Each structure stands twice: as structure tokens, then as C-alpha cells.
Amino acid sequence: MIVSNLSLSTCARSESVFCSSAGDGYLEATSNHTLSPTGHLVVAVCLGFIGTFGFLNNLLVLVLFCRYKLLRSPINLLLINISLSDMLVCVLGTPFSFAASTQGRWLIGERGCVWYGFANTLFGIVSLISLAVLSYERYSTMLGATEADSTNYRKVGFGVAVSWLYSLVWSVPPLFGWSRYGPEGPGTTCSVNWTTKTANNISYIICLFVFCLVVPFMVIVFCYGKLLQAIKQVRQ
């Protein structure tokens, strides 16, 4: 008990990502930001609602696409891809943060934290890149049938593959030393290490921000801006 209490006391004062309790053998996430039990309960309720609603909503979309052949157009493959990635977050990510919030601490150790951070980063980037590809497909379709064929499954399938490969390129590096995945906020969720001010970590965050947020966002703004411009010209 003395060793266990000393270990927990040292863990509470340290700034390390995980501390191992000598008494019970599990890894417990630590964080400089804490929530009250009521705060954790509120977060758990929100996560439970978001996870359940997101799972059922995206499952319904996938079921409709499978049931009605008319919906299986090439461009809608991108919508299926977005629904699939969002549903995977609800299945492979949200349950762990929900359970952690109900207990006020991370429950599945360091490897579980790394998995959670990787999975949420991967699926999140897939959704954003798919939205960018979708906007480009609609923009290219507007240019005319000579440049874009709406019945071309191969081209859209290539776009889906690119969204996953591109996401892997940017979600895998923390597993091999370029930044890392660890606990964030009150210690009940995990993500990229946003706080460590080292060249290694800052360089990854900058690249992630530019290539996985700014670039796709600019593509979306450009493509839909051109679409709106074309609609205004038609109305005039």
C-alpha cells in the first residue's frame, strides 16, 4: 500500500503522459486539466448522444445505399465513404472516450490511447478529404461531360482510395516518432500531442494543419465558389 500510494502521489505531481500504479497494474492517463465528476458526467452524456446518433444516422445512410440501387451512383460513393468513416469513429473511438468519461480517467492504457488517437485522426482526415474530393467532382462535372463523366465509377473509386491513402500518410507518422499520440484535455480522450513545444512535434502539427485542414478547406471553398458563380450567371 505504501508503494502504491507513493506511486499514485508521484503520478499526480508529474507531467508524464502515463503513470503505472504498482498496486493495480493498469496505466492511468494524467492531465494538467481536470474536470469535476459533474463535468465528466456531462461529457459522457454528450458523447453517448453523439455516438449513438452518429452510428444510427450513418448506418441508415449505408443501409439505404445498399437497398436502393438507384442511389448507387458514382458520385454517391463519396457520400458512402464519408458515412463509413464517420460510423467507424462512432464504433471504434467514441465508446472508449464515453467509458473513460463515466469513470473520470482513461481506462485502456497507453496502447489503447495510441489506437484511439490514430483511429480518430485517420477517420477524421478521410471525411475531410472526401468532402474536398466531392466538391472537386461536382466542380469538374459542371465543366462539361468532356472533362468529367458522372458515370465513371473508376474515377470516383480512385478518389475514395486517395482519401484513405492520403489520410494514412498523415496519421501514421506519430506511430513512428514524428510527434506522438497521447491524452488530451481532462485525460479521457487521446489525440496528437498538441502541447509539447519541440521542433519534432511542432513541425508535425504545422504540416497536419496545412495539408489536412487548410488545403482541403481551400479546395472546398474554391470549388463551391465556382459553382455558386456559375449558378448566378445562369440566373442572370
Automatic annotation (TrEMBL):
The keyword Coiled coil does not apply. Keywords: Disulfide bond, G-protein coupled receptor, Glycoprotein, Membrane, Receptor, Transducer, Transmembrane, Transmembrane helix. It is found in: Membrane. The keyword GTP-binding does not apply. The chain crosses the membrane at residues 41-65, 77-102, 114-136, 156-176, 202-225. Its main location: membrane. Residues 57-236 form the G-protein coupled receptors family 1 profile domain. It is a multi-pass membrane protein. GO terms for cellular component: membrane. GO terms for molecular function: G protein-coupled receptor activity. It comes from the Eukaryota. Belongs to the G-protein coupled receptor 1 family. This is G-protein coupled receptors family 1 profile domain-containing protein. It comes from Coilia grayii (Gray's grenadier anchovy).
